[in-house]
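[step 3/7] fold_predict: job queued, chain A
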Amino acid sequence: MNTPSSPSVAGRDDGSSVRIGALVPLTRPGWVEAGRHLLAGLEWGVREVNDSGGIGGRPLELVVRDTAADPQRAAAAVDELARMGVAALAGEYHSVVARTAAARADALGLPFLCSSAVLDALTDRPTEWVARLAPAQSHGWQIYADFLLGAGHSRIAVAAQPSVYWATGTRILRDCLAARGGTVVELDMGRLDPAAVCDQLVENRATALLLLAGHPEPAVSIVKSVRHDQRLPEILIGAPAGQPEFTEWARSLGDDGTAIPFLRYLPERLSPLGARVGTALRERLGEAPSFVAFEGYDTVAVLADVLGSHGVDRARVAESWPRVAVEGTRGRIQFSRTPGISVWQWAWTPVQVVDRDPAEPGRFRVLHTG
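[step 4/7] structure written:
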C-alpha cells in the first residue's frame, strides 16, 4: 500500500475529534434533493455514534463539502480534506464525480467509502483505498433489463445525454437485451427535442422509453411530451437511474410522473434497525427517506465500526475493508473483491424495480426484485 503524503491521523491539528470528510451535491447542477437525503443519512449516523460515546471517547465530526456535480470541484475538496487530516472520505452521489474523487483519494492514500455512485469502473486500476456500498451499475441495470423483458418489452429506446454514466448504462442494457433477442435504439438528446423523441418512438415502434437524461431537464419535458402524445398511449416510460424516487419529481409531473419504473436499493422489508432509522430520517427530512438517505447512514455505521476497531490511521482503515461485518439498515455489510470491479464492493445490497402508484402517487409499488 502506498505511503500517504498527507497527515495519516484524523484530528492531528487539535486532537478533539475524529473527522470524516463528506462529499455531497448540494447545489445545481448537482442533484440537490439526492444530496440532501445523503447528507441527512450521514448526519444522523454521526449523531447516533456520538450519542453512544463517539470513537474511543472522541466525538465523530463530519466535514462537508459541496461537489455540485463537478468532478474538479470534488478533486479540490479531496485535496483540502486530506490536508485537514480527515481519517476517511465518505459520500458522493454522482458516479462521474465519485470516479474523480476515488482517483484522487487513491493517489493521496485517503480511505474513501463511496455511498451512492454505481459506475463499475470507479477507478481505472484496482485500489485498496476505496470501498463502495451501492451496487455496481452492471448488476442493478441487468436486473432492470430482466424486468423489461419479463414485462414483454424487447424493443427499447433510450433518450440519452452525453456522459460516461449514461453511455455505460446504454451498453449494459444493449448487451443484456441482445442476448435475449431484444434491441436498443439510442436517441441523442444532444440533437433531439422532446417532440422529436416522440416521432422517433413512433418510427422505431419502441414499446418502452428509458430516460437516460438529467433531472429536472430534459427528463421532465420528455415525460410530458410522451404522456400527451396520442400516438403513444401504451408506451412504458422508465428511469433506471432513479429520478422518480424524489418528491421533486412528483411535484414537477403530478400524475404524469407515476407508473415510471426505476431502480431502488432497499429490501422488501426493513430490519428493526432500518425501521428505526427510517422513522428518524423521515422526521429529519420532513418526508419519506429515499434509499440514498439509508446509504448515508450505512456509510457512517461502517466507518464508525472501522475507526472504533482499528484506529484512525489511514492505512489501517483501508486495510480493514475485507474484515468489515456491520449490520446496516438494509442488511449485513461486508466487502469483497468482485470480478470487473476495481474497489472493495458490498455484493450486493437489495435491488428493487419500483414505481409510483397512479392511484396514490405518494406510494411506491414493488414490480420486480433481484
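[step 5/7] annotate
Residues 2-14 have pLDDT under 50 and may be disordered.
The longest strand covers residues 360-369.
exit 0
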